[in-house]
């Protein structure tokens, strides 16, 4: 009866036990109220003023480009990095289940048969009145052990596993943000290179006609050999740019195929037809700096890693305190199998046990110090990621703002150069301008058109960088398993919540 009362007392203490180690609270972070660079209005540079406001979760759809949508849809289904991230979620989910299993007793079953034959030459055998014949022993039963979580070590371990699981979800979201931005960047590069190739080929056609005209005028003695060589030089220089543009185009196509887990030439045929760059987006949702803590998955992951490190301080601290366990066995023992299942064959043991480390050479306290240092590192990492995220948004805003001004100026320069080429050719045909003026106008037009194409690409890439910096490209489907208040049990992770 005393053992039963002691067992019940330990059991009640285990259910209502305390939790050692510091409780976690999300750190307060000082953030600016607004961005130092205001978002420019891109409506002056877009050809589609009726485009809708961007949904950050699916920002690429605002470009209204079916090919881009198809690429990212393929990427989200087939990318190998995403599949590895999903496997890591499964791993974290299993570790979470393992940590919760420590709250419950373990129960084992066993059965054995033993035949023994004692020696007749031992002192015991020679001085015992009992026979020394062979003996049989049949055994079957169960044994159970339940380590009571009196000081919350298992609860802290479950708390850490919960945060690790959430961090695994955030890591997958972080990878998704990076991959969607990278896929869009390569697609923009492909369309830009195709556009620049079209510009180069158009100029080659124009310059070829100019060379033929120059050759005829040279043969008729109207101009000298210098003018002909200058025309040939301009044509050859433009032709020399074609292979570089084609090499860049092939590399971008191959990289895009790797992102979608396809062979290198998978997208070469699908994107072989030249197409204009997607229109600029006139309305961009610019969240406040404080929203980055909620939107950016890398910040969310760092905060969950901090929570996990914090909980492991309690796991290490629990080793300073005694561990109480309830142990018991119940089974059947008999020398004859026919009597094994009789009530007289029943045997049992039950009782509590205590284990308390008295001397460990400072190992436990040093382990606590290790976890405390890791928590400090996680806190510093969390703050650093926030600062980096603020920098990325500010840089993207500044780059987009400045490039938009450059794009507008280059657009005007192309119009002026096109008019200059027309005027130079008309004056040359009338003998009022030199051939050098015609060549200069042609060379200037090609250079400015190519710069405009590159500026258009840079604008789109800056816009993609801004969406990435704002944490666009994912939806919040992280399961709600937070259990930072250890007085309540964490909710299990449901299978349907898996990404």
Quick structural summary:
The protein has 499 residues and is α+β, with helices and mostly antiparallel strands. Helix content is 58%, strand content 9%. It has a four-stranded antiparallel beta sheet with strand order 1-2-3-4.
**Helix-strand topology string:** HHHEHEHHHHHEEHH
What gross morphology would you assign? elongated
**How far from one another are the termini?**
53 Å
Could you tell me the radius of gyration in angstroms?
38 Å
Mean pLDDT: 82
Number of strands: 4
Biggest β-sheet: strands ordered side by side in the sheet? 1-2-3-4
Beta-strand residue percentage: 5-15%
The assigned structural class equals alpha+beta
Regions with little confidence, pLDDT below 50 for 5+ residues: 6-11, 42-52, 481-499
Oligomerization category of the chains in this entry = single chain
How is the biggest beta sheet arranged? Answer: 4 strands, antiparallel
């Amino acid at each position: 009866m005393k053992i039963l009362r002691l067992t019940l007392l330990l059991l009640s203490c285990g259910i209502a036990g305390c939790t050692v180690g510091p409780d976690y609270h999300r750190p307060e972070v000082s953030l600016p109220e607004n961005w130092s660079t205001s978002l420019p209005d891109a409506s002056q540079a877009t050809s589609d003023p009726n485009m809708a406001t961007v949904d950050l979760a699916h920002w690429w759809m605002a470009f209204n480009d079916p090919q881009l949508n198809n690429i990212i849809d393929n990427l989200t289904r087939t990318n190998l990095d995403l599949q590895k991230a999903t496997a890591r979620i499964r791993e974290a989910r299993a570790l979470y289940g393992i940590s919760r299993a420590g709250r419950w007793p373990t129960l084992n079953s066993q059965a054995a048969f033993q035949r023994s034959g004692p020696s007749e030459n031992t002192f015991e055998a020679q001085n015992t009145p009992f026979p020394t014949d062979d003996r049989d022993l049949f055994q079957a039963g169960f044994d159970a052990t339940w380590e009571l979580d009196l000081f919350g070590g298992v609860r802290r371990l479950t708390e850490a596993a919960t945060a690790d699981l959430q961090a695994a979800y955030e890591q997958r979201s972080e990878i998704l943000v990076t991959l969607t931005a990278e896929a869009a960047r390569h697609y923009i590069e492909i369309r830009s290179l195709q556009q620049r190739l079209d510009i180069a080929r158009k100029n080659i056609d124009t310059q070829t006609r100019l060379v033929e005209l120059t050759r005829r005028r040279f043969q008729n003695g109207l101009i000298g050999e210098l003018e002909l060589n200058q025309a040939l030089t301009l044509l050859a220089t433009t032709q020399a740019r074609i292979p570089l543009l084609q090499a860049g185009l092939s590399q971008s196509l191959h990289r895009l195929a790797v992102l979608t887990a396809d062979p290198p030439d998978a997208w070469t045929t699908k994107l072989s037809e030249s197409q204009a760059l997607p229109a600029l987006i006139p309305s961009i949702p610019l969240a406040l700096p404080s929203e980055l803590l909620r939107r950016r998955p890398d910040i969310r992951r760092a905060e969950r890693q901090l929570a996990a490190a914090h909980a492991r301080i309690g796991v290490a601290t629990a080793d300073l305190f005694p561990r109480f366990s309830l142990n018991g066995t119940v089974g059947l023992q008999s020398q004859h199998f026919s009597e094994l299942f009789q009530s007289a064959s029943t045997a049992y043991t039950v009782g509590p046990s205590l284990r308390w480390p008295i001397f460990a050479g400072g190992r436990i306290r040093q382990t606590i110090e290790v976890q405390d240092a890791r928590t400090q590192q996680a806190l510093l990492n969390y703050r650093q990621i926030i600062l980096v995220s603020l920098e990325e948004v500010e840089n993207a805003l500044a780059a987009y703002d400045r490039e938009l001004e450059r794009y507008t100026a280059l657009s005007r320069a192309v119009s002026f150069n096109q008019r200059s080429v027309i005027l130079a050719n008309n004056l040359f045909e009338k003998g009022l301008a030199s051939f050098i003026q015609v060549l200069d106008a042609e060379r200037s037009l090609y250079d400015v058109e190519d710069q405009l194409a590159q500026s258009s690409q840079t604008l789109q890439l800056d816009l993609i960088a801004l969406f990435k910096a704002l944490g666009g490209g994912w939806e919040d489907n992280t399961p709600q398993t937070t259990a930072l208040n250890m007085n309540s049990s964490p909710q299990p992770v449901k299978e349907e919540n898996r990404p």
